[in-house]
Design goal:
There is one protein chain. Strands 1, 2, 3, 4, 5, 6 and 17 form a seven-stranded mixed beta sheet that branches. A five-stranded parallel beta sheet has the order 8-15-9-10-11. Strands 18-19-22-21-20 form a five-stranded antiparallel beta sheet, sandwiched between helices. With 479 residues, it is of the alpha/beta class. The protein is 31% helix and 24% strand. The relative contact order is 0.11. It contains 13 helices and 22 strands. The protein has three domains: 208 residues, FAD/NAD(P)-binding domain; 118 residues, FAD/NAD(P)-binding domain; 116 residues, Enolase-like, domain 1 (2-Layer Sandwich).
């Protein structure tokens, strides 16, 4: 077995690992980046990019199917599943290619391929070919799909989101388990592409929404489009000659339905269980996860850092990149460990209508403000630009602190949520008050005017601003 000694070893060449490598390389060339199987980030291969390709096709099909509301008669919509998936795979491969090229352009002595496990706190065994002794170690091994035992009874008809993007054609039907981000995005997209879909949940949630008023609005909206069982008790999953048969109880009644495939979108599992993490000499919680500081990403008082999806703190690409920077800088500057900037929480679900959350959840606001907060809201059913576009479904609720008037957070289900969420995140990070946000320019007519309506409502409920006038003429018609 070859033996190597480096200042920093990084386990995992995904987004967090690659960014960490770039930061470490600014300080030392004594670094190695270790990948277990293949280059190419989760986002590029099986995550955000290929899923958006599928969603884009679904949106086009939906636009054509609903064009008659504008007096545009397109006729029957026919979806060519093979062409849809051909484009998904082709564009997916284009996104992956530069990531692979970037990795392969690194000096050969900085790259290792093979499954990694801890021998002790400083030594790593890579495959059966190399032992690496490192002064500091960054764990950036990402996550994988978590599949409950009962779903495994679907056998060869069980798939996860990774599998969807290698399909050659669209199936006739899919049971989607898990109404979170992945399940909702893929479930709705498949439904709009002509696949019979039923989306199963357990706790009644949808898309990660925490505000009950918005959650209930979203559930009712999605129910109008595809079969949704958000509080189902799954009794049996059976592989049959025709596919997969699911038996569940809902509203006190037993139901059965047969599908071609079962898609498990039931959360992600951090990739720490095959690292022999118990040999790393760091404290673990009762789930076997390292205890770490989310500002320095340091595990206890050790020389080991953990970054990206593997720590399950904020499993999003932009957060993984930020964490790669923090962990990389700290590993390079060791023992001078500094807290890094953690940005305002920001998450978007690319359903239709979209879902977004910014800053603190309504429960977190309640805890932080000890009940001294107010809520402002706007419904997009009567918002001018939304009605023009035929995107007039949705609800935005914004939260502010009594006394200070600070904007604390928001949740939204509605049109242009991906854009409105950025405005809100920037405002929260700048610690703006609601009054200061209302001093910003708003063009007419745009969907963002709905945000102004919600902020005016919030300012009034904070006893700061006036009662919003009926028919604000200086705002323009249809606001």
């Amino acid at each position: 077995m070859d033996k190597r000694e480096v200042d920093v070893a990084i386990i995992g060449a995904g987004t967090a690992g690659m960014v960490a490598y770039q930061r470490v390389r600014k300080v030392t060339d004594s670094v190695v980046l270790i990948e277990g199987e293949q280059y190419g980030t989760t986002c590029a291969r099986v995550g955000c990019m290929p899923s958006k390709l599928l969603i884009a096709a679904a949106e086009r099909a939906h636009d054509v199917a609903t064009a008659d509301q504008f007096g545009v008669l397109a006729g029957d919509v026919r979806v060519d599943g093979r062409r849809v998936m051909e484009r998904v795979r082709a564009e997916r491969d284009r996104f992956v290619a530069p990531v692979v090229r970037s990795m392969e352009s690194l000096p050969a002595e900085h790259r290792l391929m093979g499954h990694t496990r801890f021998v002790d706190s400083h030594r790593l065994a890579v495959g059966d070919h190399t032992e690496v002794r490192a002064g500091r170690i960054i764990i950036a091994t990402g996550s994988r799909a978590n599949i409950p035992g009962i779903l495994k009874e679907a056998k060869d008809r069980l798939i996860v989101n990774d599998d969807v993007f290698d399909w050659q054609d669209l199936p006739g039907s899919v049971a989607v388990f898990g109404p979170g981000v992945i399940g909702l995005e893929l479930g709705q997209a498949l439904s709009r592409l002509g696949v019979r879909v039923r989306l199963f949940g357990v706790s009644g949630g949808i898309g990660g929404l925490r505000d009950e008023k918005i959650r209930d609005y979203a559930l009712n909206t999605f129910r109008e489009e595809f079969a949704l069982s958000p509080e189902a008790e799954t009794k049996k999953v059976e592989r049959t000659e025709q596919g997969v048969e699911v038996t569940w109880v809902e509203d006190g009644k037993e139901h059965q339905e047969r599908f071609d495939y079962l898609l498990a979108a039931t959360g992600r599992r951090p990739n720490v269980d095959n690292l022999d993490i118990q040999n790393a000499g760091i404290d673990l919680d009762d789930r076997g996860m390292p205890n770490f500081d989310d500002h320095t990403l340091r595990c206890g008082d050790s020389h080991i850092f953990i970054a990206g999806d593997v720590n399950n703190h904020r499993p999003l690409l932009h957060e993984a990149a930020d964490e790669g920077r923090i962990a990389g800088d700290n590993a390079a500057a060791w023992p001078d460990v500094q807290a890094g900037l953690r940005k305002t929480p920001l998450a978007v679900v690319f359903s239709d209508p979209q879902i977004a959350s910014v800053g603190l959840t309504i429960r977190q606001v309640d805890d932080k403000c000890q009940g001294c907060f107010a809520v402002g809201e706007v419904c997009f059913e009567d918002q001018g630009r939304s009605k023009v576009l035929g995107k007039d479904r949705g609800l935005l609720r914004v939260y502010g602190e009594h006394g200070s008037g600070l904007f604390m957070g928001a949740e939204m289900f509605g049109p242009a949520a991906e854009h409105i969420a950025h405005l809100l995140a920037w405002s929260a990070q700048q610690r703006m008050t609601v009054s200061e946000m209302l001093e910003m320019p708003f063009y007419h007519p745009v969907i963002e005017e709905g945000l102004r309506t919600a902020l005016k409502d919030l300012n009034r409920n904070l006893n700061i601003g006036p009662q919003p006038a009926e028919g604000c003429m200086d705002c323009g018609p249809g606001v």
